[in-house]
């Protein structure tokens, strides 16, 4: 088969396009030099391997000889995997949003040989479809404009580039508690009272909204905040956005009822959803959230784990060229696999009467359905009561489904998404008391720190098939530091803190925005792009700046240093968060921590002894988000933690019993050996009602 220049790449997405008749280049200086020499514009296409509409555009256009001929005659064509090069994607997605007021993937950018964009679009069909022009119409028009109105194009590209480089949201007061209230009111106004979640279709999980709402409930005692969090996660878990047989969440719902998802499964969605479920379980004691978190972890460890310890990126929405085919069923299929009684019970429990064509799945033959449970408010049984009688049926159908053609799996290992998953697993190990989760988290961190660093100890972004490459970005560092902090509190192994502080120093050495505050997305010595991106908003995942803010606060409390560096990040957010607080919900989790009350909990004792276990167990079983926990071994092994936190040398057991020291708002209470007294110190003055 004839191939193009993508044939030697590592990215599964780029390799998918290696056989296209389009003369694709990877992102490289050679491509831009060719564009300059031949005086051609550049056609940049950005996507990822599990993107449904990326596949559609490839089938319709990039595999089409007619379209390929036009592209090759008119442009120098470049393909980019957005997961492999999020820095490039960040720059040109900002350009797309500036020009179109929206964005998405596949992302199409046409730009000058100097890398300045003048045209942006997402999916483009081959031929005009309704009011959407096709490539067969757009390419000749661009070629005509490039030949006859070059000065207009250059001026437009220059104006767009100037606007991209401008970052001036105006003056604003420092965010405070009122900012938390305004974010809550905005989420409340946007809440779907019928089906949960926020806004209209398409609906995205956005678990960081849930994390914020839980902290707001904890701070204010506002029951509606907890209700919105529970109803959102509960509706998602019962809906078709959740894989009821193989577990895990799909990317988003195409409808308001969470029935028909966009079927790809992303590692970061699993991590963030698991974190939300764990915190809901700690806050409410409801086993539904524990079960959901465990199922998510089971899916990731079964289907997304590399033998070296890391976690893969994603699974595709499509199989056999049809979106969702792997996940759909008919009644006849169910009845062929299950005995009659089990089939009747399964079909009575799982809705099978949805008209998928009404949700845009017109290519699916009639009679197919997505297993999903009805809303909890329709007189249906609670989730755990619903699932228990059909557990055997679910397992049989899962085994039968394994014989189908599976969706493509993107087996890249990304440092940032692995950081999120490790953080979730380590938090789950604490809250659920599950050593298997801790083992998986530790193995993945060993993989990241052992196989995804360069010779200088700096993080690399991507690993695949034995090769680690691409300089680490802000998200890589921030998310891995988060994971290291969670691993420390799950193990009290000081080497995780040592590594967190090492990576934190890299953040300040290579990413700090000394003038504007916060961090740039790329390192100071990274490839120079059209602009140096600096991401603040919390999108599908929290921004690296948001995570770094909370990381820095936690590290300052652990080490006893001042939090001035956290304030530098905070000041960078002020005008943005004040203008649109609900777009910064994970940053506001950090603000909630900073405003306090936040606690430092220091436990002195011997690991493994019953009195030590009792204190640690009480902490891990409760919802106390704004705290750091440090352990000082009573006999030996304290040298590493004492070096990080010299002040700990004065903390010791009393009367031979494990002893806890609780400090809040820069004042320390009397030490105690009693879990109930410890919990009273931690919860006094916090209005959120404990439900366990």
Tell me what you see in this structure.
Helix content is 48%, strand content 11%. By secondary structure, the protein is α+β, with helices and mostly antiparallel strands. Among the domains are: 5-165, Glutaredoxin (3-Layer(aba) Sandwich); 325-405, no CATH class; 599-683, Glutaredoxin, CATH 3.40.30. Strands 1-3-2-4-5 form a five-stranded mixed β-sheet, sandwiched between helices. It is globular and about 85 Å long.
Summary of the model, kept short:
By secondary structure, the protein is an alpha+beta fold. It contains 26 helices and 19 strands.
Q: According to CATH, what is the topology of the domain at 5-165?
A: Glutaredoxin
Q: What average pLDDT do the residues reach?
A: 91
- Please write the CATH class name of the domain at 5-165: Alpha Beta
Radius of gyration: 26 Å
Q: Which architecture name of the domain at 5-165 does CATH use?
A: 3-Layer(aba) Sandwich
What topology, given as strand order, has the largest sheet? 1-3-2-4-5
Shape: globular
Count of DSSP H/I helices: 26
Percentage of residues in DSSP E strands: 5-15%
SS content category: alpha+beta
CATH H-level homologous superfamily name of the domain at 5-165: Glutaredoxin
């Amino acid at each position: 088969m004839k191939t193009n220049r993508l044939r030697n790449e590592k990215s599964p997405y780029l390799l998918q396009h290696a056989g296209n008749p389009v003369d694709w280049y990877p992102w490289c200086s050679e491509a831009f030099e060719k564009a300059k020499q031949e005086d051609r514009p550049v056609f940049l296409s950005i996507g990822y391997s599990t993107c449904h509409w990326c596949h559609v555009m490839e089938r319709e256009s990039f595999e089409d000889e007619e379209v390929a001929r036009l592209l090759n005659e008119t442009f120098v064509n470049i393909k980019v995997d957005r997961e492999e090069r999020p820095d490039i994607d960040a720059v040109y997605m900002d350009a797309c949003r500036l020009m179109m007021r929206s964005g998405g993937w596949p992302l199409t950018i046409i730009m000058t040989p100097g890398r300045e964009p003048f045209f942006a679009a997402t999916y483009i069909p081959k031929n005009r479809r309704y009011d959407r022009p096709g490539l067969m119409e757009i390419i000749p028009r661009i070629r005509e404009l490039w030949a006859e109105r070059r000065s207009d194009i250059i001026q437009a590209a220059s104006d767009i580039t100037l606007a991209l480089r401008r970052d001036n949201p105006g003056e604003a007061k420092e965010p405070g508690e009122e900012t938390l209230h305004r974010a809550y009111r905005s989420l409340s106004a946007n809440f779907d009272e019928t089906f949960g979640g926020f806004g209209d279709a398409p609906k995205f999980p956005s678990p960081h909204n849930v994390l914020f709402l839980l902290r707001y409930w904890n701070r204010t005692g506002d029951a509606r905040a907890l209700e919105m969090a529970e109803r959102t996660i509960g509706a998602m878990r019962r809906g078709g956005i959740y894989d009821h047989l193989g577990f895990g969440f799909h990317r988003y719902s195409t409808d308001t009822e969470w029935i028909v998802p966009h079927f790809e499964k992303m590692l970061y969605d699993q991590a963030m959803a698991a974190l939300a479920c764990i915190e809901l379980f700690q806050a409410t004691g409801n086993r539904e959230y524990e079960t959901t978190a465990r199922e998510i972890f089971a899916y990731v460890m079964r289907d997304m784990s590399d033998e070296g310890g890391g976690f893969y990126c994603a699974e595709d929405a499509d199989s056999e060229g049809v979106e969702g085919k792997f996940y759909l069923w008919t009644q006849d299929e169910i009845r062929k696999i299950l005995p009659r009684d089990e089939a009747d019970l399964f079909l009575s429990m799982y809705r099978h009467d949805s008209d998928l064509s009404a949700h845009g799945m017109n290519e699916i033959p009639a009679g197919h359905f997505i297993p999903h449970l009805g809303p909890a408010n329709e007189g249906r049984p609670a989730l755990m009561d619903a699932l228990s009688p059909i557990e055997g049926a679910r397992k049989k159908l899962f085994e039968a489904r394994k014989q189908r053609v599976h969706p493509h799996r993107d087996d890249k290992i990304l440092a940032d998404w692995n950081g999120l998953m490790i953080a979730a697993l380590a938090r789950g190990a604490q809250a659920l008391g599950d050593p298997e989760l801790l083992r998986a988290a530790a193995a993945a961190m060993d993989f990241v720190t052992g196989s995804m660093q360069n010779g200088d100890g700096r993080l690399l972004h991507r690993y695949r098939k034995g090769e680690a490459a691409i300089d680490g970005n802000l998200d890589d560092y921030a998310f891995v530091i988060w994971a290291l902090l969670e691993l420390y509190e799950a193990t009290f192994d000081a080497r995780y803190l040592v590594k967190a502080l090492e990576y934190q120093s890299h953040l300040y050495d290579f990413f700090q925005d000394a003038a504007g505050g916060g961090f740039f997305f790329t390192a100071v010595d990274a490839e120079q792009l059209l602009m140096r991106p600096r991401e603040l908003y919390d999108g599908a995942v929290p921004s690296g700046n948001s995570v770094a803010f909370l990381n820095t606060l936690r590290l300052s409390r652990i080490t006893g240093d001042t939090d001035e560096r956290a304030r530098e990040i905070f000041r960078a957010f002020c005008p943005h968060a004040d203008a649109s607080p609900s777009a910064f919900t994970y940053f506001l989790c950090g603000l909630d921590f900073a405003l306090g009350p936040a606690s430092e909990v220091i436990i002195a004792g011997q690991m493994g002894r019953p009195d030590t276990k009792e204190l640690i167990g009480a902490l891990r079983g409760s919802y106390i988000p704004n705290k750091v926990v440090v352990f000082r071994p009573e006999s030996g092994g304290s040298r590493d933690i004492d070096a990080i936190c010299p002040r700990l040398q004065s903390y010791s057991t009393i009367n031979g019993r494990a002893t806890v020291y609780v400090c809040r708002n820069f004042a320390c209470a009397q030490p105690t050996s009693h879990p109930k007294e410890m919990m009273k110190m931690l919860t006094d003055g916090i209005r959120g009602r404990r439900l366990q």
